[in-house]
Amino acid sequence: MTASSITAQAVAELVGGRLLGDGTRRITTVGPLDRADAGTLSLLSGARYLEMFRTSRAGAVLLRAEHAEEPAGPATRVVVEDPAKALLLVVPVLLPESSPSWGVDPSARIGRGATWVGDVSIGANAVLGADVRLGARCRIGAGAVLEDGVTAGDDCDVGPNVVCHRGTRLGARVRLKAGAILGGDGFGFASGPEGHKLIRHVGGCILEDDVQVGSNACIDRGSLDDTVIGAGTKIDNLVHIAHNVRMGRACLVMAGVGVAGSTRLGNGVILAGQVGVVGHLHLGDGVRVSAQSGIGQDVPAGTDMGGTPARRQRDYLRAQSALYRVAKIINQLEELVEKRGDRG
Length: 344
Prior knowledge:
The chain is α/β, with parallel strands linked by helices.
């Protein structure tokens, strides 16, 4: 990245905010309140960080109107409705991404019939199998492997050491972070007296437009049907999506989640960290599941779930609260029994 420099006034204009303080102050980077210097743009995202704000040396701070008149802290401030969203507008200007180095590294191996459109970047020791098709401006990282017949739409970013097995199809603007594995056989076996025999998986692994998959995540191909990840869905690191899963649009799947085979997720589903979902279930649109929960039944659209086994989030929190009260009651009963014993 190549850093540039803008004034605090330019920041305010860029984010549509109200400037307080010195508009000529030069900003060269972004950073947290506690490690900022005079050239840093930071943000105050909430009241819990006020103490840090009051001692910060940041050159300028994005904050909400409720904190605009705070007597201590950096004097140059940009008042916005949502500081975090405003910062997203500034980062590309201050820290623009470097342009890709287009071309094919001499150590890359390109299979027979592999084709691409316009400029592409194919890194060192990458492998493209036979009949791989890449759209325009695709970037294939060092050591990545795209097996025979894999396709990718325009502007895909395939990170280092990613593996896309046969039957993987990527839409446009898909991003696969380092070490992701797509389209491998699912965990399917036919068990009998002679042991467990692998069921050959012949379905595909389809990622629609604007999907992101984190490092070391695994998305299995379908057994007969396809595994499908809907447009705009974002999947974190270390996630496992099993065979035949169909996930809707704009879902968020956090680190450590496991979704078992043939489960269907609607649009906008959110699975927090380390959630486990049993196979052959249906989670409706807008379902939200709190961290470390276990889903073992279908969940209606718009429901918040928590706990293991999961229940409606409100019921789960009430049960947890009651459990802690029971512990207090037990202590009180034990004290009462001891007093009665002393009297006897």
